[in-house]
Design a protein that fits this description.
Length: 625
């Protein structure tokens, strides 16, 4: 956190001073990224040294020399910094005026600090008449404020360049995405998809760096969710488009492809909304209030009565309680909540009502008696109310987590997906329709369970992860059905089969993410750790994700090229395809996904698959080759 130094001096000088921890200086600029904040910390430290030195009666030569060195170091650093800012202004005309003014102010402040710290070797005296840091501390504070304000402005303006790069990259991706959507020949698709892959990798690098740099954990989680969609949709887009090109008259293939393109555009738009802090078409999507937040606010309001009986109106606490109980209807009205669970929740809600009413009664009595502090009656009522509201949180947590655990056990067997794949491969449309209804029912259960987990997740980043999981199940379920319908109409189509596999893998991957989310929610509830966002990668995870996208695009390029070869037994092509597939499977293994489940599977993949040539002769790379 950054603190503007010299708060006392600022006050005595009649200047408003921001509170410690607030990174908004005179310019009103908000620091939103860690990189800008980290850049300012050394400067703040040096200026604090200058301002907060002890005002001793006698000042040694050593003290004077140290102050002089620090002041000059600040000025030199500012000079270098300003030179970079001016270079940025020269290359970006839209920032020229603002950046030029900020650089001018920074240089002026740096010069002022250098002059004020130029105390020289002789000890200054009141008769010297020279203005130094010792005789004009208010001047030093003003110079420091101006310097921090102007340097912050330069950094924030420079940050706009990063935002511009991301927006430009997104625009390039959108243009290519439009071209991809309209292609009519396979050859044209291969050419444009290769360009699209390169642009997506660039976008992944830029947005990954930005995600790691964001200070706001909520924005970080939203960015992670959008990037996760883009990463998974890239492969879906490839196979869905190829399927559409192979079967241009198939309605289900078109529906499948259109859904992927739509989801990618939405994810791209979400990234830009986060980066630029804007809303498309004037929309202002606000997250629904969670029960966890309601409980936290209610308890806070009740407990503050200990300090001040007159802090809140009686109607405020009662209103909060009723709104909280109303939100539990997401649990009690759910068709998947058992009768016993419903009765338990309703029972605790009634207890909360009773305890709140008793608190209100004790509260009114205390106020009527003009009590200056909480009476014993009020204290007991506060404890009982907080205890019952905590019991409500425990009951809701038990229901949500219990249902999620049960669903994950059932879905771990993947019976509906297996049945759908088999029915599609056999061309059995009747069986496909039957198992599609089963999958739709399971999708609805998962969507509703994610909604309940949202209420008990315990942090904003995890709330966003729950919403991401809910949206993913809601979208991928119908996409699996359209993909299997296409396969059932064309059971001999390899690309239709591959397309179905991609969507089924995305479903399974989301189930794995849900299991991790469940573990995080439990950990927070039990106080074992702070909130982490499951779909949000930290720096190492983000690097792995970028690598995975690059590997998958490489693999996809190879697969696409193979489609152009009429002779499928061509050794070099088949071997290249095998190597690309192996690389991506190994990447998935590092993330706990894909077909490789154990270390033994990984070793087997490394030893066997890439080293045996397609016709079963000697291993490639043998000493005699």
């Amino acid at each position: 956190r950054l603190c503007v130094p010299g708060q006392a001096e600022l006050s005595s000088a009649g200047m408003a001073s921001p509170p410690c921890g607030n990174s908004n200086f005179d310019s009103g600029l908000e620091i939103k990224t860690r990189s800008v904040e980290q850049t300012l910390i050394p400067l703040v430290t040096q200026i604090t040294t200058l301002i907060n030195h002890k005002d001793k009666p006698k000042k040694s030569e050593r003290t004077l020399a140290a102050i002089h060195r620090v002041g000059q170091a600040v000025n030199v650093a500012v000079g270098r910094f300003v030179a970079v800012g001016e270079a940025i202004a020269a290359e970006n005309q839209e920032l020229k005026d603002e950046m030029g003014q900020a650089c001018f102010e920074a240089r002026r402040a740096g010069d002022a600090i250098a002059q004020l710290t130029d105390v020289g070797a002789p000890l200054p005296s009141q008769q010297d008449g020279g203005v130094t840091v010792f005789s004009d501390r208010t001047g030093m504070v003003k110079a420091a404020r101006l310097l921090l304000s102007s340097v912050t402005k330069v950094l924030v303006l420079a940050d706009r360049i990063v935002i511009k790069q991301i927006v430009t990259s997104r625009n390039k991706v959108l243009v290519t995405l439009d071209h991809l959507e309209r292609v009519s020949t396979f050859q044209e698709f291969v050419q444009i998809f290769s360009q699209f892959g390169n642009e997506m990798v660039e976008f992944a690098h830029l947005t990954g760096d930005r995600q790691n740099d964001l200070k706001d954990e909520k924005k970080k989680a939203r960015m992670a969710a959008a990037r996760a969609v883009l990463e998974k949709c890239t492969m879906m887009l490839l196979t869905a488009s190829k399927t559409c090109l192979r079967h241009p008259d198939c309605e289900s293939a078109r529906i499948n492809k259109d859904a992927v393109f739509h989801r990618m555009r939405c994810a791209l738009e979400q990234v830009i909304e986060i980066v630029t802090e804007s809303r498309s078409c004037g929309e202002n999507k606000i997250l629904p209030a969670s029960i966890y937040d309601g409980i936290k606010d209610f308890k806070s309001g009740v407990e503050c009565l200990r300090e001040n009986l007159y802090a809140l109106p009686l109607q405020s606490v009662s209103g909060q309680m009723e709104a909280l109980v109303e939100r539990t209807e997401d649990f009690t009205d759910s068709p998947y909540t058992s009768h016993e669970q419903r009765q338990a929740i309703l029972g605790v809600c009634q207890l909360v009502r009773q305890d709140t009413e008793q608190l209100a009664h004790a509260w009114v009595e205390a106020q009527s008696a003009h009590a200056k502090e909480a009476t014993e009656q009020v204290e007991v009522a506060i404890l009982k109310t907080c205890q019952s509201i905590s019991e409500l949180r425990r009951e809701l947590h038990k229901v949500a987590v219990g249902r999620a655990s049960d669903l994950l056990k059932v879905h771990g067997e993947q019976l509906p997906l297996r049945a759908l794949k088999a029915a599609g491969a056999e061309g059995n449309l009747e069986a496909v329709a039957e198992f599609s209804r089963t999958l739709t029912e399971q999708k609805e259960q998962l969507v509703e369970t994610c909604r309940l987990l949202y209420h008990v997740s315990g942090s904003e980043p995890l709330e966003i992860t729950c919403i991401h999981a809910e949206e993913t199940f809601h979208v991928i379920g119908p996409q699996i059905i359209s993909a299997v319908q296409t396969l059932a109409l064309h059971p001999s189509s390899k690309i239709a089969k591959e397309n179905l596999e991609v969507f089924c893998e995305a479903w399974e991957s989301q189930l794995c993410d849900m299991a991790l989310l469940l573990r995080e929610i439990n950990d927070i509830f039990e106080g074992r750790r702070g909130a982490l966002t499951i779909c949000g990668c930290e720096q190492e995870q983000t690097s792995i994700a970028k690598l995975g996208l690059e590997l998958r695009l490489l693999s996809s390029d190879v697969d696409t090229e193979v489609e152009k070869w009429e002779e499928q037994e061509h050794d070099v092509v088949r071997q290249s395809q095998s190597l690309a597939s192996m690389a991506y499977n190994m990447h998935l293994f590092t993330r706990g996904e894909g077909l490789l489940k154990t270390t033994l599977d990984l070793f087997h993949q490394a030893e066997v698959r890439p080293l045996i040539n397609p016709k079963g002769s000697r291993p490639l790379g043998h000493s005699s080759d």
